[in-house]
Amino acid sequence: MIVQLATAREITPADHGRRMRLEDFERARGREGYRYELIDERVYVSPRPNEPHDFVLEWLNKVLHAYMDARPDVINRVSTHARVFVPGRRRATCPEPDFAAYQDYPRHTPWRQRRWQDITPLLVVEVASDDLAKDFGRNVELYEQVPSVREYWLVHPGDFDAHFLFRVYRRRGAKWQKPIDLAFGDTYATRLLPGFSLLINPDA
After folding, report:
1. Same domain membership, residue 43 and residue 143
2. How many distinct helices (H) and strands (E) make up the chain?
3. Are 154 and 170 in contact (CB under 8 A)?
4. Rounded CA gap, 193 and 98, in Å?
5. pTM of the complete model
6. 45, 36 in Cβ contact below 8 A?
7. Containing domain of residue 90, as a range?
8. Cβ-Cβ contacts under 8 Å for 85 (sequence gap 6 or more)
């Protein structure tokens, strides 16, 4: 039997700001070269990162996966394509961080039955690119509204090592504490990830 699939709607940069239902957004396919998010049921479009941004992503990907392999009791899934659904908003809002790390990812549930709506991360990470307002403003507010997110790491590679910024938001109750800023060459450790230590240097 031949199964015919309905043609998915293509979304493009011209759709930035367009109102769209979650079910339509999930069925749509995005034009290559851009990232697409749904924020308050409006399409948010941003360009794909450049090479320095991608190199930092690769560095963090190795670090987080190495920790997950060593401590699956703390983190049992790291995703680079997650949607984080923000509770309590009138319209569907699901930013897509560069990384989302999970402590209780439901591996016991058949994989075809897992939905982003039912899974919330412990840690989210964004590597800032040209759209600084998104990562330093919008996402700080949105991730604060997700109770399971205990830390938000915001990495800004800058143009030189002296401009490299590793900012950490840590939760205290329902709010973020004052952010912690680390520079290139500093080391970051956190009680959230026992035994974890990160030298802030993608070339290390």
Report:
1. no
2. 4, 13
3. no
4. 19
5. 0.92
6. yes
7. 49-199
8. 92, 93, 94, 116, 117, 120, 146
